[in-house]
Write a structure and sequence with these properties.
The complex is a heterodimer. By secondary structure, chain A is of the alpha/beta class. Chain A is globular. Chain A starts with 7 loop residues before the first strand and ends with a helix. The relative contact order of chain A is 0.17. Chain B is built from eleven helices and no strands. The longest helix of chain B has 33 residues. The radius of gyration of chain B is 18 Å and the shape is globular. By secondary structure, chain B is mainly α. Classes of the chains: A alpha/beta, B mainly alpha. At the A-B interface, strand 6 and helix 2 of A face helix 1 and helix 4 of B.
Chain lengths: 241, 245
């Protein structure tokens, strides 16, 4: 029962898509109130694992529990937020209308939508149609929608892609604040450098979990301070094994 | 089932329409324009106009609802918003009812306007209850929605989904009895038309205009159209999968 305390408990998780095994025997736990980076090259299975966590992925075997419940349980739909990789918001609505809709589905009020917009620094654009926004702005509208209602687990698929360095830093600060307030975050990225901002990192490669460690541990194990280099060394070591 | 979530979904869909006034204008005014065109095609032949006009009125909500539902749902599926919604407390039925309500408002406005123009300015004569004809239009609108929902499941792009229109709707226009009475068609075509919901819609209109004796048959036709509509929406709902590959 010890894993009831963990926000996510995965044991020998295997995911098959068509005839391809996208994820092989992946086991890990995420502690509550932590920020974990999910890193690896594109196509390594990051998004598939995230989709499994929120219950929209078919053909998941093994044990995958979220907040003590089976991943995808209806009870979790108020407590888990999911940011898809491509911005999933309505292009033909304004920023405010998008947030208001997602907020009202969760039974929240207009003020909650306002707070989410402030958190991603979009208040100034709230009257704009999403269609007219830049790629990074659209991504932030999508992120704001995922922040609604103080979810206990946030599964964020590449939330900082296409953003400028200043905004990236602000968002990582925000992720830290959310975790300090008790939320658990799983944040994917294919930019290894973002691992620095995480307490824990999960490294995926071709559907296998290469490592579950801390950024400092990763650098110590591989003997380099450069995270890109650390990943490459880890892959090379894995290949030699 | 939460009425609030249905309501906010309907409001969201109406807001999307409000940002697209051109589509709304086309949906509202094209049927009246086509009815006017038909009226002048049959200039001096009011009987023919009456016979073709009433069934044609019931076809507009079918085409409109098919097109807007199929495109709207395709966008929900391909834009990732459906996936997001399915991870929230919103139920699939609530989503569909929300769409039905919002597009239903549009369909009612469309049919109301086309009715007003046809019966008023164009002098279309419908020899029976206009209320029943309106009910038929609502059922046909639901049918269009169900078929559009199904089409959106089998298309990967907007290019593909609009091709389902000539593939599924136009054969019904050809065989529903609008161009040639169904009883004059050859056996095979007649049998095919028996499987098409619009054939019953047009039968209902014909029974409607021949009055009293066929009231029972007319209600039977309406029931069949309703059954097709519910069947299409039900099948379409099955294609809204929470879990995908």
């Amino acid at each position: 029962m010890e894993h009831a305390l963990a926000a996510v408990h995965a044991e020998r998780v295997r995911i098959v898509r068509g005839s391809v095994e996208v994820l092989r025997d992946v086991s890990f736990e995420l502690a509550r109130g932590s920020v974990t980076g999910l890193l690896g090259p594109s196509g390594c299975g990051k998004s598939t694992l995230m989709r499994a966590l929120v219950g929209v992925q078919l053909n998941v075997s093994g044990t995958l529990s979220v907040l003590g419940l089976r991943a995808g349980s209806a009870e979790l739909r108020h407590r888990v937020a999911y940011l898809t990789q491509a911005p999933s918001v309505y292009a033909d609505l304004t920023v405010r209308e998008n947030l208001a809709y997602f907020a009202s589905i969760l039974g929240l009020r207009a003020e909650d939508a306002q707070l989410a917009l402030r958190r991603v620094a979009l208040t100034a654009l709230e009257g704009q149609l999403v269609r007219r926004l830049s790629g990074g702005e659209k991504a932030r509208v999508s992120l704001a929608s995922a922040l609604l209602g103080d979810p206990e687990l946030l599964v964020l698929d590449e939330p900082t892609v296409g953003l400028d360095p200043l905004l990236r830093r602000e968002l990582w600060d925000l992720f830290g604040e959310l975790a300090a307030a008790g939320a658990t975050l799983l944040v994917s990225s294919h930019v290894m450098d973002e691992a620095r901002r995480c307490e824990q990192v999960l490294l995926l490669r071709e559907g296998e979990l290469l490592a579950h460690t801390t950024p400092a541990g990763l650098m110590a194990d591989t003997g380099t301070a450069d995270l890109d280099e650390a990943f490459l060394r880890l892959v090379a070591a894995g290949a030699r094994r | 089932m939460s009425a609030r979530r249905v309501g906010v979904t309907a409001r969201r869909v109406l807001e999307q329409l409000r940002h697209d006034p051109r589509t709304v204008a086309l949906v509202l005014f094209v049927p009246s324009m086509l009815m006017t065109l038909l009226r002048f095609v049959y200039e001096g032949r009011p009987r023919v106009f009456d016979a073709a006009g009433a069934p044609l009125l019931s076809l507009f909500p079918l085409t409109t609802m098919f097109l807007i539902t199929s495109i709207a749902l395709l966008r929900e599926r391909s834009g990732g918003t459906l996936e997001r919604l399915l991870t929230t407390p919103l139920a699939k039925l609530e989503l569909l009812l929300g769409y039905g309500l919002a597009f239903g408002v549009l369909a009612v406005m469309q049919v109301g306007l086309a009715f007003g123009v046809s019966l008023g300015a164009l002098g279309l004569h419908v020899a029976a209850s206009k209320l029943v004809l309106a009910l038929l239009c609502v059922l046909v609108a639901l049918l269009g929605m169900g078929l559009g929902l199904l089409a959106s499941a089998f298309a990967r792009s907007e290019f593909q989904v609009v091709q389902f229109f000539p593939a599924t709707i136009i054969p019904q226009l050809l065989l529903c009895g609008l161009l040639t009475p169904r009883q004059h068609m050859q056996t095979v075509l007649h049998a095919i038309s028996d499987a098409m919901p619009m054939a019953y819609a047009v039968d209902a209109v014909h029974h409607l205009s021949r009055q009293s004796a066929l009231v029972g048959a007319m209600w039977g036709d309406l029931a069949i159209v309703a059954a097709f509509a519910l069947g299409a929406i039900g099948l379409g709902a099955l294609t809204l999968r929470r879990q995908t590959e």
